[in-house]
Amino acid sequence: MHTFKSDYIVFSAPSGAGKTTIVKELLSKYPDELALSISATTRPMRSFEEDGKDYFFLTNDEFTKAIQEQKFLEFEEVHGNYYGTLIDKVDFQVKIGKVVLFDIDVKGAESIKQKYPDAILIFIKPPDKETLRDRLVKRKSETEETISLRLKRLDFEYEQARFFDYTIINNSLEKAVQDVEEVIIVK
């Protein structure tokens, strides 16, 4: 077993920087010690998704009620659907001895740091804009318009990165994972 520097480790990055891949690598390396924070959402479940595994799927009314009852660490409306992190789900993981990893946007990361001041915030940065663009194109899940929108958001995300505890450049997945391990595991 390893000793982690915090029970809350938050990852943010521009789309295509490799944050989700890094998080998945860590979860597979430390399955008994780490857990992924699963978000709640009001968007419809896709055929391959499972409630409670991919997301906690809530109706608009359920989500609104949870907001009123202050059950979210953070939440946001994106393209007409709500997404948020439920406090009780995170607290449960910590209670059973897990370190919780968050794969979340920069604004959500700041909210988590306010609630859990000892949270470690890690910003994953691509080596450069061209590499990021290439990664987005290679995913084949983005339109040219979406890629353009994601690249326009870079300046905002890089500006927010100054509030993070660490910035790690993902030039190589193996090296990026090692760099993350250096900052989250007590040696």
**What value does the average pLDDT take?**
92
Low-confidence stretches: none
> Rg to the nearest angstrom?
16 Å
Amino- and carboxy-terminal Cα gap: 12 Å
Sheet with the most strands, sense and barrel status: 5 strands, parallel
What best-fitting shape do the alpha-carbon axes yield?
A: globular
Tell me the number of structural domains: 1
CATH architecture: 3-Layer(aba) Sandwich
In total, the number of strands is 9
Per CATH, the class reads: Alpha Beta
Question: What percent of residues adopt helix (DSSP H or I)?
Answer: 40-55%
Helical stretch count?
8
Pairing-aware structural class of the strands and helices? alpha/beta
CATH fourth-tier homologous superfamily: P-loop containing nucleotide triphosphate hydrolases
Helices and strands, in order, run as EHEEEHEEHEHEHHHEH
Strand content: 15-25%
Can you tell me the CATH topology?
A: Rossmann fold
Give the neighbour order of strands across the main sheet. 2-7-1-8-9
Summarize the structure.
The chain has eight helices and nine strands. By secondary structure, it is an alpha/beta fold.
Could you explain how this protein is built, in words?
The structure is a single chain. The chain is of the alpha/beta class. The chain has a single domain, classed as P-loop containing nucleotide triphosphate hydrolases (Rossmann fold, 3-Layer(aba) Sandwich), CATH 3.40.50. Helix content is 42%, strand content 21%. It contains eight helices and nine strands. The longest helix has 12 residues. It starts with 7 loop residues before the first strand and ends with a helix.
